[in-house]
Amino acid sequence: MLLKSKEDTTKEQSTVGALAFVWDVGYLTAIPVIIFAFGGRYLDMRYDASPWFLLCGLCISVLLSAYLVYKRMQRFL
């Protein structure tokens, strides 16, 4: 039977933690972009104002994503 040392277990936990963090940041970035991009596109089509609502939605999503990632990073700083 193979026994893992404490170092190996710690490395695995840190790797899993890092992957979970990267996955979380990906979602924090992608979800606002998708929501605001589709919302902006919908408003552009509804009010015939292409591409202004889309651009505003993307700008809002970038700012929101940056804020959410910053708040998540505060745990590590």
Provide an overview of this structure.
This protein has 77 residues and is mostly helical. The chain has a domain at 22-73. Helices cover 83% and strands 0% of the residues. It is built from 2 helices and no strands. α1 (6-47) runs antiparallel to α2. It is elongated and about 65 Å long. The model has no long low-confidence stretch (mean pLDDT 88).
What's the arrangement of secondary structure elements?
Layout: H1 6-47, H2 52-73
Helix pairs in contact: 1-2
Short recap of the structure:
With 77 residues, this protein is an all-alpha fold.
- Give the helix level as a range of percent: over 70%
Structural class by sheet pairing and helices? mainly alpha
Coarse morphology: elongated
Radius of gyration: 20 Å
Major β-sheet annotation: none
End-to-end distance: 40 Å
Order of helices and strands: HH
Mean pLDDT over all positions: 88
Secondary structure: number of strands? 0
Q: Provide a count of the helices.
A: 2
Return residue spans where pLDDT drops below 50 for at least 5 consecutive residues: none
- What percent of residues are in strands? under 5%
